[in-house]
Write a structure and sequence with these properties.
Layout: E1 8-12, H1 16-21, H2 24-41, H3 43-46, E2 54-61, E3 66-72, H4 90-93, H5 96-114
Parallel strand pairs: 1-2
Antiparallel strand pairs: 2-3
């Protein structure tokens, strides 16, 4: 697709003092709650873009051409992260020929990316 929908909240403060007084933790918490509600209700399965919410708090001092902003992408930190299996060394799973192919492929990929 040629576009990606990312629903978000834009708050533009009228003064620098208003900008500084916004409770950023509360904004983040309310947005995270909306994401969690969408997950629990199943709406995120129907509309995955609901997981891409963002916050943007701004103030523009047009007289002095100074711009202030606070951008946030709420995300959940799962601790400890769920694992399908215990971590295993690649050398315990792949043959030496497969490891060589992997190294060569990675080297080619990084060379192509840097040129």
């Amino acid at each position: 697709p040629s576009l990606c929908v990312a629903p978000g909240t834009l708050i533009n403060a009228n003064t620098l003092e208003d900008f500084k007084e916004w409770d950023k933790a509360k904004l983040l918490e309310s947005t995270a709650r909306r994401i969690l509600d969408d997950i629990e209700s199943g709406r995120a399965l129907e509309e995955p873009e609901r997981l891409l919410r963002f916050l943007l708090l701004t103030f523009a001092d047009l007289k002095s051409h100074k711009y202030f902003y606070w951008f946030a992408f709420p995300a959940f930190a799962i601790s400890p992260p769920p694992l399908a299996s215990a971590p295993t060394a690649l050398s315990d799973v792949l043959s030496s020929a497969q490891l060589t192919t992997l190294r060569e492929g990675y080297a080619a990929l990084t060379a192509a990316a840097s040129s």
